[in-house]
Amino acid sequence: MNIIFRRFILIIFDSILILASIWLVLGINNANVVSLDISNFKWIYFTSIITAISIFIFSGQYKGLTRYTSSLALYEIALRNILVTSLVFLYGNLKSYPLPNYKSWILICFLSTFSLGAIRIILRDVLIKYKKKKNKKINSVIIYGAGSTGALLAESLRINGDYKVLSFIDDDK
Known about the structure:
By secondary structure, the protein is mainly alpha-helical.
């Protein structure tokens, strides 16, 4: 897939998920349908998207290959979301905009981190599955060594898509 198109798709997914996280948290915390009107917190939606996408682009969130997303990428997303949430909160404070309670900010950060991480894991799995279907011949392998090196090899082979790990053999009972 063209790298520009791939990054554009990820930016669209991230924008939608951030907006949905904010809308959901503000809607749940206010607990009545009338309060789902975004007019009080309209600034949060726009500021969050501009801040988040800018930070994500400049910090390299869209440079990694989606097929190789790992737990480290999830931690990086969490740190970026903490930074985004903090900056949006500080901006709202400086401008004296209406602010939701602190619990809402924590929930927005948590929900957006969870959703952004989940979409990357889902996309990774879809891409790996697509590659496996694309490659007709799948070789079966048995890995000697059930330690960390064997686990790394198994993960690498799974991502590659050309091999299926049948089992592990180890000399340590």
